[in-house]
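ok so I'm stuck.
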Amino acid sequence: MPALVPDNVTVIDEFCPAPQVARLMASSDALLHAGDQETFGLVILEAMASGIPVIAVAAGAFQEIVTDQCGLLCAPNSPAAMASAVHALFSSGSTALGQQARRHVEQHYAWDTVVDSLLGHYHAVLGTQWPLIANG
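replied:
not stuck anymore, here's the structure
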């Protein structure tokens, strides 16, 4: 017997083109990600960049991306833990958490920040100096 999904929950279980994904994200109150095999989690960053708070399982890269200032982590493979995290999110001000999620992505995952960090790593490996602002 399939699980019953409440009317206020949308399950996306197929490929969606980018414009449809953007519309879905814009209409979302939160993003729940139950997968535990992600190596990075771009969809989580996209949601956070859209100002949407995230609930994800404490697995893979999610533990590095989702901090308690921008989302919630819960135990993997536990519907009860996910449900508890959803309840906690909407009990504690999901709008503020979404705003903090956006700021977190802007500070840590903007292209300039990522490129400067990557160039810093390359120069460290090469043992060379590099300008403080690589793309300035």
